[in-house]
Amino acid sequence: MSSTNNPAVTEQPRSRFQRIWDSDIFFSFRRSPITIVAALVTLVLILSALFAPWIAPYDPFNPASLNLMDGFTPPNSESMMGNYFLLGSDHQGRDVLSTILYGSRISLFVGISATLFAMAMGISLGLLAGYRGGTIDAVIMRVADIQLSFPAILIALLIFGIARGIIPPSQQENMAVWVLIIAIGLSNWAQFARTVRGATMVERQKDYVSAAKLIGVHPLRILIRHVLPNVLAPVLVIGTIGLALAIIEEATLSFLGVGVPPTQPSLGTLIRIGQQFLFSGEWWILFFPAMTLILLALAVNLLGDWLRDALNPRLR
Amino acid sequence: MSEPIISVRNLVVEFPLRRGLFTAVDDVSFDIMPGEILGVVGESGAGKSMTGAAIIGLIEPPGHIASGEIYLKGKRIDNLPPEEMSRLRGKWIGMVFQDPLTSLNPLYTVGQQLIETIRRHLPMNEAQARQRAIDLLDEAGIPTPESRIDSYPHQFSGGMRQRVVIALALAAEPELIIADEPTSALDVSVQAQIIKVLKKLCESRGAAVMLVTHDMGVIAETATRMIVMNKGKIVETGSVGDIIKRPKEDYTIKLIEAIPSIKDETRRHEAPPTSTLLVEVKNLTRDFDLSPGFFDRLLKGAKRNVVKAVQNVSFDIRKGSTFGLVGESGSGKSTCARMLVGLIKPTSGQVLLEGQDIAAGLTQERRQKVQMIFQDPYASLNPRWRVADIIAEPMHALKLVSNRREAEDRVADLLRRVRLDPVSMRKYPHEFSGGQRQRIAIARALSSQPEFIVCDEPTSALDVSVQAQVLDLMRDLQDEFGLTYLLISHNLAVVRQMADDVGVMHSGVLVERGPVDAIFDDPQAEYTRMLLNAVPDISKVE
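ok -> structure tokens follow
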């Protein structure tokens, strides 16, 4: 062994892009066609939602541009007024494609915000519970257990109901999206807290934490700078799968009529509107928003599945 | 001359990996005669375990035997279909693995596992098989086997469990036993007993043994002939005495030189310790309360359960000296170390650093003076941090530097001092080998310019040649900076090489302490004598 005198570094540092391209995670990504398709679908849906105002053929939320004479136009045809609708139009003469683009914008915004909110809450409480242990741990985890024993949708409904009672009626339309985000977020934090707590309990035993304690690093700094980066991998996985769940949860709440108002419909609201016309033959009003929701949830879920496998060293 | 039990010819094992073909075993040939113990020694990654796995046909895919032949009593076995191979295993070839905890099924009693193995391979009924199981346990040195046979694995201690594994391996009277690091997870005193059992059983049954280990001492005690492996290839083959006393190849010479011996008195650090005391440990005691909760005690009448991890331990460390603390697992030496640096508060007793009590609240100054090096270099460095940040953390936390530039210069200097390239500060810990990581850990410990460093098993996770380098480095740094070490180790030879004074711990009590040569050459305590006798040491070979 000659490493006493030989410096450790001999190879040329590769560029950042090359390193990422060569990394094990990206390798497993390249080898899985389903994941690539799922990633593409997610990317297209997110981009089209993001740029909806520029790519949507009509503005479905501008009442001035709507014409009831355009109503119930089947897909890929022109209305009496001579307007073309690729995916048809609904009872108010709104272009279904445009409502989907604008609707998935709201669905994604609510889903992502709610997941981030649940993540932030779950991670902080999980870190605290795992690192401190004892009574704090017991209290936090019992609350999480109680919450997990209810269906998430029930908790979201409950929080939504309470918010309805607190917020004055004039504000309710504007606050609806934020209430939805908090309701979905609060009903999903327990998963994150559990995972982070378990990982934290493992990490805090490791010697790098002892080394930091030894030199008097503040516990909060140990938690954020040392422990947090090492417990994030599983959080990323349940975060992705949680995103799909949050999007579906939002759709369910909106479908039940307690979500965003019909003037600013999300995918769930669109499905609720569409199901009124399902049996009268105007299937497209329901079908296309529903397919978009399925596609979005499936693609995000597949990404989450892949991430879980790629980050699990046992399956590598 | 009789026919060899096993004969391996030009064996090549390959692993097709993403980044190319990895040859784990490269053109290996050897024979083992009946009744012979062949030692296979090498550092991690030498391909020694893989050779054993190839013989019993248990190579993990995608690894496979690329070429070569394996003969068991003249019959070729490397190309047998899996079903036939599994019949061979157990009947003809027995295996003893490193970890006795995982090689037994925790859900079945020891007897059930033995009887199942016996009846699969030998034509016996339940009662006969049971009698045979009892005989086997008896032979393996388990006291009162009639009553222990119906116990579950967790009811045995580590050493007893390994005896059961040996009994299991011998159950079907195999011709060949492959023992892969059979004693590496055990304490020295238990290791000595297991070696004795293994040796005795092989002599009485005439079975051939392939003993795979990284510990040259174990081979010196056990084997008759040995193979030295490095990077998949056989470096040297010969009798144990020849190789240890008169190694021919460069690699073997270096390897033997790197192995510390309990008889070795040289290589101590140069600067003599001063007579002033730096650390005084006074009547240190630590109890761990493992009692059930208050309500359980109240309602179910559960008893209090207090483990006395450290009892009334006192010693002094002279400035500039190395104090070695030795003992087997569970003797309380790591608990002692953690109390000395202030990570655990003592139940009673004091640790004085330059006359000031450490536990009375760690001030900035004392934090800076005391540092620690941990056992596992894989767990002691945060995998998400760059080396530069890891080493600089003590400087930032203790505000020893004013800006990033200054910190970076200091890190570069420290890396040079632990013989690493300063460029490596941009890398992450996983890009380094175990020895290099331990150097980084040492650099971190040095970064606050400490006076006293507690080293908790600093080299036990490392290969011998790397261990020698790290110990050399520690010695050089001691002379350079006038450091004082507390060296904790289960390895007596390492302590003999490094320490000026030694303390021996047993079940939480310091049984003996004194100058290193006095303790090793003329031990007073019964336990120390037993420990020194049990150590397998290369100096014991004739």
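The radius of gyration of chain A is 24 Å.
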